[in-house]
Structure formats: structure tokens, C-alpha cells
Specification:
8-stranded mixed sheet; 14 strands; single chain; alpha/beta; Carbamate kinase; globular
């Protein structure tokens, strides 16, 4: 069956922007956090938020903050030592951000993630719903990898790739990777005076010459530095997110990027966020799980509403919370695909009831919706 698919009222008039700030930008190349620079970045982020943009901040700097708190001790370069420094430095880092954003009257929230939080469907749904709620309330989520507990199996490895995962998680329109370099060059500018800034990459595949210029290769042989930013950009653009790699030292860099000024290196998305979301849903849809809804619920879904328990008439198959299921109308035509907040067993208990009765029936409540419109694609 040929289906035309659109996203259920997920997109808003204002953009969602993920900003990743590295340790080199936060410290200015020194061994301690450069608070005037941090305050200036906060000022710009707050200005973007005030004009309606939704802002996520992915921030490094916890380990550097931990070293500063302890007075720069001589430590072995071991994972436990880094985890200890991250555990000490993360509260310090958040305290600084909280103070600076408070100057502009903006609340912040701390989000610590590991790869497991994003790869597991249930945890993915928890993280997505939390971030969506924070952004809708005008809160700026400040995100970092949970270094103090991450092991090799669940370690993301760097905040560049974490920022790309976050961009996918929140369907970001723009990912800004701030670094200590103006962007990606045709060669290492510190070694080759003839190196030129690459202003735009819009090919289906990032050329091998660009990977080599970034200091690595697309088969993962490179480590650290600009190559991880290129890896993150390649991931984000496949999720429909535009990426800008630019210097965090440039005056008003975030405002200039948001105003579409040509700065740094721009990596164009391969698909739009709608197409990316559609692909994700279609790839993960359950072959056996579905719910049938009444005419009122169908009308609400087609006009951008969420699926509430009161509109569900029948359940077919079995599904767990976080799985993607099909929503059918009373003629058994597919209406939508969506990620469910409740298992089939729980939906059977609450279907046909008002949302206000969910906690009374189940003894807990995850949300008023069985499927929130943010986690749904409509089939038309």
C-alpha cells in the first residue's frame, strides 16, 4: 500500500538548536574554566531562547572543573581517575551555568546520558519525553555524558557524538559544534599556510579528502580533534539536522550562525527531520501490536492531537512501553504509527477511560497520552 506520511504536528515555527561546547572553548586553552567566556556564550544562548528558539546545550568541561576544584593534582591517566574528576566537576560546572542563566531569568536542567539511554527504546522514550517537556517549558537542558558511571560498553566516547545523538533525539533543526578552529580546512592550517576553509559540504558522502583533512578517515582510524566533529556532523545530517562547525572564540558566534551569516563549515542535511522521523518509525514498527480508535480519536490525531485512552476501542497483539505500534480506525485502516507510553497490558486496563483516571486504575501515571503527538507519524 502506497502511504503518504507526515509528522503529527511535531514541528513548530521556531527552531530547535543543539549547541555543543568543548573543553577548549570553555577554558580558552588554559587549565581552568574561563568564566567570562562562559558568561558570553550563555548571553548568546539566552538571546536565542528569548526570540523563540529552543536551546539544548551539550557541554564538556566536567573533568577540567574537577581538576580545578582539587587544585590540579597529579593523577594517573586511568578511567577511575577521570570518572572521579567528572563526578567532582559536574556539580561545579552546573553551578556556574545555573548562576549565569539566572542572570537572564532562565531555568536550566541537568541531563546526564550514556549510549544505553539512547539505544534502549524505553530509555530513549524517557529521555525524549523529558527533553521535550523541558524545551516546551522554556528550560535550557544542559547535557553531558554520565562519565562517572559509564563503562566501555555504554560509553559514547566524546561529546561531539553525544551532541549528534541529542540532535536526533530532539529532532533538532541545527547543531552547532563550537571548537578552537574556524572550521574544517583543506589541510591542517597549523602546518600548511595554503590551507583553505571549507565553507560548505552538501554531497551525499563526505569526500575522502575532507576526512583526511580533518585528521582521520571515515573508517574510524582517526581519534579525537576535528575528525570526531566530522563524524558527529555526518551522523546528524543523516537525521535531518544542519550542522555548523565554527570557532567558539569569534564574537557573537551563536547569533551570527542563527542569523545565517556565513561562518565556519556548514554541513547540509541529507534528509529533512520529517523524513528522518518517518524512517525511524517505519523501521521500528511492531508487526503484531496495534490499537483501534473511534472516529473522535481519529479526527483528533489527524488535526495534530495525541492519542488518549478514552478514544481506544480495541487492542491487538502484545507490545511493551516504548515500542512503535500501528493505530487503526474502525474500518481497520492505518491512521498513524506511534511510540506508546504504556504496555498492551496497561492499555487494556485504561482504554475507554479519561486521562485523569489513569493513576487510579494503574496506580501510576507516565503521561495523559497513550501516544503523544511528538512521538507519532500520521499515515495518510
Amino acid at each position: 500500500m502506497d502511504l503518504k506520511i507526515k509528522l503529527g504536528n511535531f514541528m513548530t515555527d521556531n527552531r530547535t538548536i543543539v549547541i555543543k561546547v568543548g573543553t577548549s572553548t570553555l577554558t580558552g586553552g588554559s587549565n581552568r574554566l574561563n568564566q567570562p567566556r562562559m558568561l558570553d556564550l550563555v548571553r548568546q544562548a539566552a538571546s536565542l531562547r528569548e526570540r523563540g528558539e529552543k536551546i539544548c546545550l551539550v557541554s564538556s568541561g566536567a573533568i577540567a572543573a574537577g581538576r580545578e576544584v582539587l587544585g590540579f593534582p597529579e593523577l594517573q591517566k586511568t578511567i577511575p581517575a577521570k570518572q572521579m574528576l567528572a563526578a567532582i566537576g559536574q556539580p561545579r560546572l552546573m553551578d556556574i551555568y545555573q548562576q549565569f542563566f539566572r542572570v537572564y531569568g532562565m531555568p536550566v536542567a541537568q541531563i546526564l546520558l550514556t549510549r544505553e539511554d539512547i539505544s534502549d527504546r524505553k530509555r530513549y522514550l524517557n529521555a525524549r519525553n523529558t527533553l521535550s517537556s523541558l524545551l516546551d517549558q522554556g528550560v535550557v537542558p544542559i547535557i553531558n555524558e554520565n562519565d562517572s558511571v559509564a563503562t566501555d560498553e555504554i560509553h559514547i566516547g566524546d561529546n561531539d557524538n553525544l551532541s549528534a545523538m541529542v540532535a536526533s533525539l530532539v529532532d533538532a533543526d541545527l547543531l552547532v559544534l563550537l571548537t578552537d578552529q574556524d572550521g574544517i580546512y583543506t589541510a591542517d592550517p597549523s602546518l600548511n599556510p595554503d590551507a583553505k576553509l571549507i565553507e560548505k559540504i552538501d554531497s551525499n558522502e563526505i569526500p575522502d579528502t575532507v576526512w583526511k583533512a580533518a585528521g582521520g578517515s571515515k573508517n574510524g582510524l582517526g581519534t579525537g580533534g576535528m575528525v570526531t566533529k566530522l563524524e558527529a556532523a555526518d551522523t546528524a545530517r543523516r537525521s535531518g539536522t544542519k550542522v555548523i562547525i565554527a570557532s567558539g572564540e569569534l564574537p557573537d558566534i551563536l547569533m551570527r550562525i542563527a542569523n545565517s551569516e556565513q561562518v565556519g563549515t556548514c554541513i547540509m542535511p541529507l534528509v529533512d527531520t520529517l523524513e528522518s522521523r518517518k524512517r525511524y518509525m517505519l523501521a521500528g514498527v511492531s508487526k503484531i501490536g496495534s490499537v483501534m480508535v473511534d472516529a473522535g480519536a481519529k479526527k483528533a490525531l489527524l488535526t495534530g492531537g495525541s492519542l488518549l485512552p478514552v478514544g481506544i476501542k480495541k487492542i491487538r497483539g502484545s507490545f511493551d512501553r516504548g515500542e512503535i505500534i500501528t493505530v487503526l480506525d474502525e474500518e481497520e485502516n492505518p491512521v498513524a504509527l506511534g511510540m506508546v507510553n504504556y504496555s498492551a497490558r496497561d492499555v487494556k486496563k485504561i482504554m475507554g477511560t479519561q486521562s485523569g483516571q489513569i493513576e487510579y486504575v494503574l496506580g501510576f501515571v507516565i503521561g495523559d497520552e497513550v501516544i503523544h503527538h511528538n512521538n507519532m507519524v500520521l499515515l495518510k
